[in-house]
Amino acid sequence: MNNNNYQQLPPPQQSNQYQPPQAFVNTQVVLPRNADHSVSPITIQCPLCNQVGVTSVKSKVGSGTLCCAFILLVTTFCCFIPFLNENCQDKLHTCPNCNAQVGTHEYKVC
Ligand SMILES: [Zn+2]
Fold first, then answer.
1. What is the domain count for the chain?
2. Confidence (pTM)
3. Which of 5, 15, 53, 107 gives 64 a disulfide partner, CB atoms 3.0 to 4.6 angstroms apart?
4. What's the CA-to-centroid distance between 65 and ligand 1, angstroms?
5. Is 80 part of a structural domain of the chain?
6. Residue 33 belongs to a domain
7. What is the C-alpha separation between 109 and 24, in angstroms, rounded?
């Protein structure tokens, strides 16, 4: 008996046929155009020179600082503290490329 019964193997499954394409991650992050509402340096795209950079922050005595000083003067006579403590002062963000002012954060007592 020459039972030539070829066991035909099923064609190899092309398992990678439906491999989902690599998710295209949109790497173009929309950067803020100004640094308002931030007390610490943040990455922005400068509205003037269109350069992306981390802002440099300077502290400045503002109305909130004076208000804080007045409250301290009335209560504790330690009115000089807000002038020394940068956390009690306004923040000015400047562009690292063109030095333009790109944002302010006003210190508020309450
Ligand atoms: Zn700039």
1. 1
2. 0.64
3. 107
4. 28
5. yes
6. no
7. 45
